[in-house]
Amino acid sequence: MNDLLQVEDLYKSFVEGGEEIRVLRGLHLELGTGQRLAIVGESGVGKSTLLHILGTLDRPSGGRVIYRGQELSSLDDEALSQLRNREIGFVFQFHYLLPDFNALENVMLPALIQGWQWERAQEAALRLLEAVGLKDRVTHRPGKLSGGEQQRVAVARSTILEPRLILADEPTGDLDPRTGEEVQDLLFRLNEERGVALVVATHNRRFAAKIGAQMELRDGGLFPL
To answer: How far apart are the first and last CA of the chain?
Structure first.
C-alpha cells in the first residue's frame, strides 16, 4: 500500500533572465512505508529539485504532495519545519556537517533542535556512530575525517530521530567506489532493519539497480524502468 507519500500532478518552474524554465511537468509518484526507490537521470534534469520538494525544503509551483495523508500545502513554514525535522532524514552528496562541531555533536544536533535532553541525544548519537563504524572517531571534527567517514556521520545524523523517510541526493557521488559501496550498504541496512523508506537520486545505474525499483526523470516526468 502506498500509504507514505503521494505526489499528484507536480509542477515546478523557475524564472531566470525573465524566462520561465519548467523543470517538473505534471509528475506523479507513490511510495509506501519501507519501500526503496531510485530516481535516475542526467545532471540538470531536476532530481535535486524533486527531492527538495519531497523533503519540504521547497514548495511546488503546482500539484499536490501528500505525506501520511496530509497535503503539505496546507502547512505553514513552521509546521513544515517541524515535520521535516521529525519525519524526514536527508543525505546529500556534500555532507553539510558543521565544521566547528565534532562527529558526536553533528549527529546530536537534530535531536537537540527537537527538544531532547542532552544526555538522551548524546546516548542516541553514540549508539548510531558505533553502528556506522565510527566509535573511535566521535570527538573528531569533520576536517579530521575522511570523505567516507564524513558521509557516514551524515547518515547517522539523518537517522537520529528515527525518520520514516530518508531522501538521499547522490549520496555516493563524491566517494571512491569502495567507500561508496559502504555507504550504499549502510543505507540499505537502515531500510531493512528499521523499515525506513528510501528515495535515492543518482546517476549511478549500478547503485540504482541495487536499490530495486527505478524511475527515470526526463522531460519533467517520472517513467518506470
So the answer is: 20
Residue at 161 is within a domain:
yes
pLDDT at 37: 95
What is the predicted pLDDT for the residue at 214?
94
Distance (Å) of CA 205 to CA 117, 147, 162: 42, 22, 28
pTM over 0.85: yes
Total count of domains within the chain: 1
Burial class (CB in 10 A: 0-12, 13-18, 19+), 57: middle
Q: Is residue 222 a part of any domain in this protein?
A: no
Measure CA 64 to chain center. Answer: 20
| Average pLDDT value for the chain | 88
- Residue (of 212, 206, 164) closest to 188 by Cα position: 212
Q: Cell numbers for 56, please give them.
A: 519540504
Span 51-76, mean pLDDT? 89
- As beta bridge partners, residue 165 has 88, 197
pLDDT digits (tens, 9 = 90+) for 111-127: 998 899 999 999 999 98
If you compute the radius of gyration of the chain from its CA atoms, what whole number of angstroms results? 17
Whether 40 maps to a domain, the answer reads yes
pLDDT, residue 106, reads 94
Residue 224 belongs to some domain of the structure: no
**Exposed (0-12), middle (13-18) or buried (19+): which is 189, by Cβ within 10 Å?**
middle
Q: Which domain holds residue 80?
A: 5-216
